[in-house]
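User: My instructor asked us to take a sequence, write out its structure as tokens, and then describe one feature of it. I'm not sure where to start. Here is the sequence I was given:
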Amino acid sequence: MPDTPPNSRCGIDSVEISRVEKLIAGLPSEDLVKLFSEQELADAGTAAGRTASLAARFAAKEACCKLFPRETTLGLIEPWDFSVRRDAYGAPQIVTSPEAQAVLDRHRIGAIRISLTHTDTSASAVAMAEMRKTDVPWFGKLFYHLLPYRRGLVMENFRRVFGETLPEDEILRLAQAYYAHYIRFLKEFICLPLMSAKKRKSCIRIENIESPLRAHEKGKGLIFLTGHFGNWEVATVTGIAQFPRFKGLLHFVRRPLNPEWLNQFITRRFRRAGFGTIGKRGSLDTILNLLETGAIIVYVFDQHAGISDSIMVDFFGHPAGTFKSPALLAMSTGATVIPASSWREPDGTHVLRFEEPLPLIEHDNVGEAIRLNTRAYNAALERLLLRHPEQWIWMHRRWKD
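Assistant: Let's start with the prediction itself. The structure tokens for your sequence are:
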């Protein structure tokens, strides 16, 4: 468990301006834009105070890293994963890279407040972590105690992901918030078919649909990489249905559910919405043919994969059997892989968000290429999960010996 109380994270750093001046002078331009963002370089300007301004921003990066000594030591984050920009009132704010944002999310930090100052010879920064509050409705606490089914597994999974970053009482709150999400999920699942088309459309918001639209214009198929985030039934059936150009192109790769009546019910719902369904076993040739015609394959990627279908790669730092098919498909067809997730907002509406495409990692060894790409896909899902950790399927045995 973390030794530092959750509300006392503070990072302080001071740097000599002359040291930063020597650093900048010795860096080629391509390395300078790696250390400082374009916005930071523009804000520093070209006048006499440029070096002092950049020194203060360098101190801010170091102060942010000091908030996370373990992740900094392991190389999970670097100073350039943090940058400083000013808001409309001129106050400095921290902007994080996707890797740094995942670290913040794993520590349940909502934002980093930063203060900058400098003298003629040195620059200093103070970074304060603003903790995120986990709200647990009364029925989440109630059903956590009333539904013992897999409760031990739920807590084991939460501790596996958050045990090194959060105290036990916060892990318990996350688990209770998950049970509240589960109850809401079941209610929405029952009520969705009873909603009018207008009501269904009003309960969903789509973010960054431009990402798959641009990728699909290249004439190749797409792979949507997703998992059991939020209410995936509401988000997919209601959200994607708002884009007629995708009708008939989307095919979900999914495992059959038990009992059979539930599996048939969900399959019929998907087909009524214009989506095809494909079994995960023995479907590789079918998927290859669909991708060649420009189809979109929706791959639920966050479940445990058996020995014959999997490769062992880390998921939150622990080896997990992970499906290797998406990497194989992307490598053999050139299909663009786009992560996608959904979540429920506090007002009950749902968000379906598409991320930017993941670049294909190439390697001379095919097996290593599959491993590297599969790990990159797991890392993408980690970032999506950490945004709203209480809205993932924690009852699933994702890690098996």
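For the description part of your assignment, you could build on this observation: The two ends are 24 Å apart (CA to CA). Try explaining in your own words what that tells you about the chain.
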